[in-house]
Design a protein that fits this description.
Helix content is 36%, strand content 16%. It is α/β, with parallel strands linked by helices and 115 residues long. The chain is globular and about 35 Å long. This is Sulfur reduction protein DsrE.
Length: 115
């Protein structure tokens, strides 16, 4: 499980989280990526395309890798604060809250990283 709180406000932390998630998916690891805080915007179509960080993999590619082989969840409260609804997010992105987060984190063998 990877929880990313940073977005364009902290591009290095944001990129690190998505990079680790994508590499883990590519390595065959089951990945659950949680978008919270400013990273919530990357649940929307085309938002990742506006993100730029020199010497890092393009964020749209990282998002697609995670979406194709992992699970992406947008925090319920973070979505609500930004006016984001289920009809707004990328296909395959779910919106869920703390109860689901705790259930996932408490599962046997789950390790968490927070960025």
């Amino acid at each position: 499980m990877i929880k990313v709180t940073a977005g364009a406000d902290s591009p290095e932390r944001c990129s690190q989280a998505f990079t680790v998630a994508a590499v883990a998916v590519a390595s065959g690891v089951e990945v659950s990526l949680w978008l919270t805080g400013e990273s919530a915007w990357f649940a929307l179509p085309d938002r990742a395309a506006a993100f730029e960080l020199p010497h890092s993999a393009p964020l749209p590619d990282l998002v697609e890798t995670v979406r194709a082989g992992g699970l992406i969840t947008l925090c319920t409260q973070c979505a609500a604060r930004r006016g984001i609804g289920e009809q707004d997010v990328l296909e395959g992105v779910r919106i869920a809250g703390a109860q689901v987060f705790v259930q996932e984190i408490m599962a046997d063998g789950v390790q968490a990283l927070v960025y």
